[in-house]
């Protein structure tokens, strides 16, 4: 009968759901272990100044490889870490590793570089965040002005927007960048509420630069507005040379994307920086 059939269906879905829940628990457990054992790694993506053609900074991007799960995307494991209360130790690990690396490059004579780190919005509500940043600066000896925190527009909304944490960060001298600019619901609010050093224009706009005149006008206006506010501009997700030409014409400061370099191991970045130095001798 239909009723029995329905029951079987239910059993079928309920079994699938249990499987899903089990898998989710397993991933959570693996991630917890990976963060505790500090077995996440970082890839670094160069940021190239258009005026000089030089790498003036790198963005640190978390990577997680697990023998059973394979390479897991940060889009997935960052939200998992947030959900299971492990984002704090993850961010701490990223900050320490990336700042140590940047100082190392500088000590090797490869130039004084900015390192940009993605910070989940919830950190700005955490009273331990400022002490953490202070500790990282002291422990790694990084120049505060070489540490850039990337935040997304949502920090300009609701409970975040009037927090003293942003003024405190400014006082420490660290830089603040707005990531994925233009894709959220609070682009203008973030410009109004935050003292930003840098605006990162999302790939969403860069993708259509070559084919859509309206996008060009929009990006040109964003750049002008950013400059009027005293912010520099990074364009993200550059994949074609034509995009670079347009961005130069529009006055963009810095570019980042696969065209120049994919996020890479520290050793590859060291090699790239060495090469750059040799060329400039
Ligand atoms: P995001 O901060 O906007 O980083 C840019 C993403 O675009 C990176 O993806 C990068 O690999 C990718 N990308 C760079 N150039 C190109 C390009 O030319 N073409 C294309 N198609 N993609 C490009 P990834 O590494 O997978 O990271 C995804 C997101 O995960 C990041 O977006 C960031 O929001 C988040 N994330 C990564 N690491 C961390 C972390 O340590 N902490 C936090 N809170 N979030 C992180
Ligand atoms: Mg970012
Ligand atoms: Mg981005
Ligand atoms: Mg993003």
Automatic annotation (TrEMBL):
It comes from Photobacterium sanguinicancri. Transmembrane segments: none annotated. Coiled coil: none annotated. Residues 24-277 form the EAL domain. This is Bifunctional diguanylate cyclase/phosphodiesterase.
